[in-house]
Write a structure and sequence with these properties.
By secondary structure, the protein is an alpha+beta fold. The chain has one domain: 3-Layer(aba) Sandwich (Trna Endonuclease, Chain: A, domain 1), CATH 3.40.1350.10. About 30% of the residues lie in helices and about 40% in strands. The chain has 2 helices and 5 strands. Strand 2 and strand 3 form a beta hairpin. The longest helix is centred in the first third of the chain and has 19 residues. The protein is globular and about 40 Å long. The chain starts with a helix and ends with a strand.
């Protein structure tokens, strides 16, 4: 695994742990299909949440959340639709959140943006 992959896994674990303390039940990690990947999928009450986790050590050129561009949003939506079809989970309301982590992963600043993607 590359250094980037290792950092990404650590960031996702931190995000999942944080979300769990906030009452979100993580039901899937790294959901992959031919249309894209979703870092975390959870249940926040009765709402299905598709979560993109982004990490940047430095925010000189924008926050981690700023890196979720329109192309990434389209891929996330397609992967989420695939998940919903595969799991037959259309009974749940759904939303897209972004967890942005910055600084050292040992003492990261975390930003949780609910409904980050329409």
């Amino acid at each position: 695994m590359t250094k980037t992959g290792i950092l990404g896994n650590r960031a996702e674990k931190l995000a999942a742990r944080y979300l769990s303390t906030q009452g979100v039940k993580i039901i899937e990690r790294n959901y992959r299909c031919k249309l894209g990947e979703i870092d975390l999928i959870g249940l926040d009450g009765d709402c299905l949440v598709f979560i993109e986790v982004r990490y940047r050590k430095h925010c000189d050129f924008g926050t981690p959340a700023d890196t979720v561009d329109i192309n990434k949003q389209v891929k996330l939506k397609k992967a989420a639709k695939h998940y919903l079809l595969k799991q037959r989970a259309f009974q749940y309301p759904a939303r897209f959140d972004v967890i942005g982590l910055s600084g050292s992963l040992f003492n990261a600043r975390l930003e949780w943006i609910k409904n980050a993607i329409d």
